[in-house]
Structure formats: C-alpha cells, structure tokens
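Now for today's protein.

===
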Amino acid sequence: MSRLLLRIERALNQVTRLAGWIAAISMAALVLLVFANMAARYALGMGSVWSQELEWYVLSLTVMTGIAYAMRSDEHVRVDVFSHHLNRVGKLWLDGITMLLVAIPVSLLILYYSWPFVQISYVRGEGSPNAGGMPWLFLPKAMILVGFALIIIESARQLLRIGRRLVFHYRHSRRHKAGSAGHAA
C-alpha cells in the first residue's frame, strides 16, 4: 500500500513540476510580449488591441499554473503566527490540517462556482468587447479551473508526503523507545 501511495505522490509531483515549467515558459513569453508591445507603441508608434489582450491570456496561464508550483516549492504566502512556535512534527500536522481543511475545500468551492462562469462564456462564444480584440474569452476564465485543480493536486501530494513523514516519525519514535527500554532492562 505504501508503494502505491508513493507512486501516486510521485505522479502528482510530476503534474506540479509540469505546471511549473508551463508557468516559467509562459512568464518568459509574457515578458517578451510586454516588451514587444511597449517597443511597438513607443518606438514605432503603433500597437494592436489583440496583442495587448494576449498579455492577459498569457498572464492568466502564468499565474494559475504557477500557484501550485509555488506551493510545491514552499514559496507561497503563509501566516506563520502558529507555525514558528511548533517543532518539525507540529509543523507537519499544521500543514496537513491546513491542506485538508482550507486548501482543498476552498479550491473545490472555487471550482464549483467558477464552472458556470466559464461554461457560459464558452457557450456564448464570448470574445473581447474591444474592436480587434482577442476571441475566446473563456480561455483565461478557464485558467481559474485549471489553477485550482492544480492546487487540489498539489494539496493531495503534500498530504501524502506529510502522511508518509508522520508515519515514519511515529514508527521511528516507537522503535527508538522500544530499543531504549530494552537497553535499560
């Protein structure tokens, strides 16, 4: 059973790693796009609505794929009011409880309420309200779904990792206590 859980954890890790690569590539593309739009506007005196709106599409891809990777790298925003007083095991418990009671339920709620928002945009064929703007406005909206699905995936991966570490800790502690009790007798 533990090997199966480890395989699942590794597979989820690969999904988050892929999301990180997508975020990195799209961030580089976004920087180039913004630079090109600025250069076209200020150096050449021309610009286009679709290329400026494309920035929002790429930004949504960057942000919504980057959140899960930030969680994976432990670079996300966290309130350390409680955790800085805890030892390593206490921090593991706090992180696990946070994933279970906050990250996953909130992400599920956002997915539930975002689905109709994206679906309506898709069914209506919603596009930019600006002349010459981007079509398919449902794409950046759909990134909400992708991003929060990735957060659920990363939260599940972290729960598996935390569970594995806690099981190891408590097994190791039990063996250590049993071993020291045997030496004392």
Observations:
- The chain has a mean pLDDT of 89.
- The chain has four helices and no strands.
- Residues 62 and 139 are 13 Å apart (CA to CA).
